[in-house]
Amino acid sequence: MKRRAKVICCAVGFLWCQAGIAHANRWAETIERLKPTVVNLEVTTHINIGLDRAGRWHGTGFIVDANRGIIATNRHLTSISPARIKITFVDGSSTEGKLFYYDYNHDFAFIRFDPSSVTVPL
């Protein structure tokens, strides 16, 4: 009886580990599939308006709509002051973007770029 319980426990443990590996593989596949949608952003501004400050900072965003050239990011990364936003894609290509919309209270923003200016690697 004890031996049977050990065998069942080992079998359940093995299946549990296999399920965990399968789950991890799904995450790895999902990450690999979505990696091209992540972009690097470099924001540079020389003038400060309101709570913004002049300077240069880096962050990331992700492509929401490649056909329309829309990227989502955090509002604290963008600037409501006049700014230069450089977008760098996973393949190394880059383009300029403009602040399209921001929500100061919920800390998100949308940046727009000309999709015909780059080949979006999706």
What does this structure look like?
The protein is of the alpha+beta class. The chain is 27% helix and 36% strand. The protein has one helix at 2-34; strands spanning 38-45, 55-65, 70-73, 84-88, 94-103, 108-113. The longest helix is centred in the first third of the chain and has 33 residues, at 2-34. The model is unreliable at 4-12 (pLDDT under 50).
From the structure above, extract its key features.
single chain; 122 residues; alpha+beta; 6-stranded antiparallel barrel; 1 helix; 27% helix; globular
Strand order of the largest sheet: 1-2-3-6-5-4
Q: Helical proportion?
A: 25-40%
Q: Major beta sheet, specifics?
A: 6 strands, antiparallel, barrel
Distance between the termini: 56 Å
The tally of helices reads: 1
Structural class by secondary-structure content? alpha+beta
Q: What is the mean predicted local confidence, pLDDT?
A: 80
What is the element string, with H for helices and E for strands?
HEEEEEE
**Low-confidence sequence ranges:** 4-12
Number of strands: 6
What is the overall silhouette?
A: globular
Radius of gyration: 22 Å
Beta-strand content estimate? 35-45%
